[in-house]
Specification:
single chain; 384 residues; mainly alpha; Growth Hormone, Chain: A; 17 helices; 0% strand
């Protein structure tokens, strides 16, 4: 059966663009945001900690919210929260306000995305690897735009704040045109939860998401700072150059969506981890602009497929409990995001940003180890 994108599939992709923009915008905006609000790298890292805290809360509660409100209402409420949180960051005169906006983006965005992932898994049971990769492509499209837009705004003197209106424009436009879209009914979440727990293999893939997310967002949050502090670029140039990373993430997922039609998710994961590790080693070992940007390009290509392939492998272990499986993913992703950027920021304040990035290469090795354990556990479960 061919993979077909119906209206609901396109809707989830479009909303993911808005979420990708809202989250990614903090990275290229961070040097200017820190200067504007007079905050340290540690406080800057707390913005992603706030997103992560919201994501963890969403992961532990979204299944109950879907049972009470249904997928459609939950999805649109999540989108509205993303737009509101982004506006809070854009207008916030104090770190307390921008931190609240970050928390709202993490909570609402993860709720919306969990509903999207579960709905796509139900809509495309034979091609969920492709659908889950493509929704991450959509997020990557959203994540590329802020680096260009904020860099341009800073260059012309408009500052970083106007970019944070974009998610409202996207969500508002979608609500006007697509608010009546119907979602597939989920399997009985409560019944599935009582029947049996998520399998052991799921939890290995779940755990693998933690170092994968940590690696991706360590670069996403502090890559611009590395370019400024180590490679010696200006803040505006750093914002533009971060397009190399986010653009590579997009390109990698575009290639990965095609590869997912013919290769297994596990094989693609191993290739992606190898390429990502090579790129990050080049990035970390360099102190001039060209090799640092080259490392961002190669690292982004590899990192692009870690999350969608681990997500696909995890959900595939429990296809009859897609809502719970998709929701729990955000506890892992949020927990990692809760710690990684903040930890890197703290180390950077004490020892320098280059020393802080020394932890990133080992994360790729950990991804491979945990995914391999998950694959073995899944194979053992399938043996009669």
């Amino acid at each position: 059966m061919a993979f077909t994108r119906e209206r609901l599939t396109w809707l989830t992709y479009s909303m993911s663009i808005a979420l990708g923009f809202a989250i990614a915008a903090l990275g290229p905006a961070m040097p200017s945001l820190r200067d504007d609000l007079g905050i340290s790298r540690t406080i800057g890292g707390l913005h992603y900690t706030a997103i992560a805290a919201g994501s963890v809360l969403a992961g532990s509660s979204v299944a109950r919210i879907v049972r009470a409100s249904g997928r459609a209402r939950t999805f649109w409420s999540g989108g509205a929260g993303v737009a509101a949180g982004s506006l809070l960051i854009g207008v916030g005169p104090h770190a307390a306000v921008t931190l609240a906006g970050s928390f709202l983006i993490g909570l609402s965005g993860s709720i919306m995305l969990a509903v999207s992932h579960a709905s796509l898994a139900d809509l495309h049971p034979r091609h969920h690897e492709v659908a889950l990769t493509e929704i991450n492509i959509a997020a990557s499209i959203g994540s590329v735009a802020p680096a260009v837009l904020i860099g341009a705004f800073v260059a012309v003197g408009a500052g970083w704040r106007p970019a944070f209106v974009v998610p409202l424009l996207v969500v508002g436009g979608l609500a006007v045109r697509r608010s009546g879209e119907s979602f597939p009914r989920p399997a009985s979440i409560a019944a599935a939860g009582r029947r049996r727990r998520l399998p052991r293999a799921y939890w290995f893939f779940w755990a693998g998401l933690m170092p994968a997310v940590a690696a991706e967002w360590s670069i996403g949050v502090w890559g611009a700072g590395y370019l400024v502090d180590v490679a010696g670029t200006t803040e505006g140039a750093a914002s533009f150059l971060m397009t190399a990373f986010f653009g590579a993430m997009l390109a990698g997922r575009l290639l990965g969506a095609r590869a997912a039609r013919i290769e297994s998710a596990f094989t693609l994961l191993l290739v992606a981890a190898t390429v990502g590790l090579a790129g990050i080693l080049l990035f970390w070992a360099s102190s001039s602009v060209l090799p640092v940007v080259g490392g961002l390009l190669v690292g982004g290509l590899g990192m692009s497929m870690l999350f969608p392939m681990l997500l696909s492998l995890a959900i595939d272990t429990a296809p009859d409990r897609s809502d719970i499986a998709a929701a729990r993913v955000f506890i892992a992703a949020g927990g990692s995001l809760l710690l990684a950027p903040l930890t890197l920021g703290v180390i950077a304040d004490e020892a320098g940003i280059r020393a802080a990035f020394a932890m990133v290469p080992g994360l790729f090795v950990l991804v491979v180890v945990l995914a391999t354990l998950g694959r073995h556990a899944d194979a053992a479960r399938s043996v009669p």
